[in-house]
Write a structure and sequence with these properties.
The chain has 237 residues and is α/β, with parallel strands linked by helices. It has helices spanning 8-20, 24-31, 35-45, 65-73, 86-99, 135-145, 163-185, 188-200, 204-214, and strands at 55-59, 78-83, 103-107, 120-126, 146-157, 217-224, 229-235. α2 packs antiparallel against α7, α3 packs across α4 and α6 (135-145) packs across α9. A seven-stranded mixed sheet has the order 3-2-1-4-5-7-6, sandwiched between helices. The radius of gyration is 17 Å and the shape is globular. A hairpin with a 4-residue loop joins β6 (217-224) and β7. It has one domain (8-159, 202-235): Rossmann fold (3-Layer(aba) Sandwich).
């Protein structure tokens, strides 16, 4: 594949994640009250029809929480993790080495994956698709590297349908969360970027349409915690 020239937005996002990488896992546990682990468990259950020794790509893998959850549920799976942030991948390598987890790590942007067509039985991405500047291009790349019948599993924040719940969630997410993230990491601006990225991301219905536009079939959405988080799934026809 020809080399992919990172856009200024790609670079900004990469630098944000490089900056918060050292305390990323701790911050996730604190700001989500630990429920992010449950969200990942539920998301990976949607891959129960993937063959036990299938090849799985965890995109925007970060420190590999999602990849490790795949291995917990499907120990024979063959895992590849890809991320734009080298700092995140460095931490992932340490975590994987500590647990002797077999995951191959690759430094790559979601819009230009260095894998052949139809290489994977499943692709996962947790809280990362909204950080892909051209997320439709990212979806098309996910589709390209999937085998026919392969499944994409996308875990992402969304907009709660309840106005009351949205007000409560909105206050915490935009007023409190960045401050907590800033206290832990010293990088409040990075967490304000992350919360802003949620506000700009399509709601569940719009994202379903985007997946269908990218070419996915059988697109569905499972909501959790009143709709603040969704698991989007789709199949390569």
């Amino acid at each position: 594949m020809p080399p992919y020239a990172l856009t200024p937005r790609n670079i900004q996002i990469r630098d944000n994640f490089d900056a918060i990488a050292p305390k990323y896992d701790l911050t996730n546990r604190v700001i989500s009250f630990g429920i992010d682990l449950h969200w990942r468990r539920v998301a990976i259950r949607q891959l129960r029809d993937v063959k036990p020794d299938g090849a799985v790509l965890d995109l925007a893998c970060g420190t590999c929480d999602m990849a490790l959850e795949v291995l917990r549920q499907q120990p024979a799976a063959r895992l590849v993790g890809a991320d734009l942030s080298r700092a995140m991948l460095g931490l992932a390598r340490k975590k994987l080495a500590a647990g002797a987890a077999p995951v191959t790590l690759v430094n790559a942007p979601a819009e230009a994956l260095p894998f052949r067509d139809a290489s994977f039985d499943a692709v996962t991405i947790a809280f990362g698709i909204r950080n892909v500047p051209d997320f439709l291009a990212g979806l098309k790349e996910m589709l390209r590297v999937l085998r026919r019948g392969g499944r994409a599993c996308i875990l992402e924040f969304s907009t709660p349908p309840s106005r009351l719940w949205w007000k409560v969630y909105n206050y915490y997410f935009f007023k409190i969360l960045p401050r907590i993230g800033g206290l832990i990491t010293g990088r409040e601006a990075a967490y304000r970027y992350l919360t802003d990225s949620v506000a700009l991301f399509p709601d569940a219905g719009e994202f379903k349409a985007a997946m269908e536009e990218a070419g996915f079939a059988g697109v569905s959405c499972l909501t959790m915690n009143g709709g603040i988080v969704c698991v989007h799934t789709g199949v390569r026809p």
